[in-house]
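Supplementary Methods, section 5.1.

A reviewer requested that the exact input to the structure prediction be made available. We therefore reproduce it here, unchanged from the version used in the analyses.
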Amino acid sequence: MNGRGPRDRAIDIVSRLPPDETVVPVQVIGELYNVLVRKAGRSRPKAREAVLGWHDAFATVETSSAVLVAAVDLAGTHRLGFWDSVILAAAASAGCRLLLSEDLQEGFTWGGLTVTNPMGKTIHPLLAAMIGGG
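The structure derived from this sequence is encoded token-by-token as follows.
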């Protein structure tokens, strides 16, 4: 991953994630749509195509009532944004051990789930194992 830009590094990491071990909270898929339309300038049909591709490639985890309650508690206790808390709670409810995020605090752990920035200087050992050494 030497010398490449963040976008190339992100694409490389995502392409190497094992689909049978990767779960995507539905909020992340919704945020992908917003980013593609608002920031990347993709047409809505192209953004829809990309979102459906992610939906088909990876298992998703829904926002249940239990996830919502956990997110409210998490946001209040740890002073996190509500939607970030929903993503954390959903991933934890799915039994995930690692959450990839550039936005959340590196190393934050909650409910057996640890946040890591895949764009950071070092790659988390669990992520390295998942993508074949990093």
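Strands lie at 23-25, 59-61, 98-100, 109-110, 113-116. These observations are discussed further in the main text.
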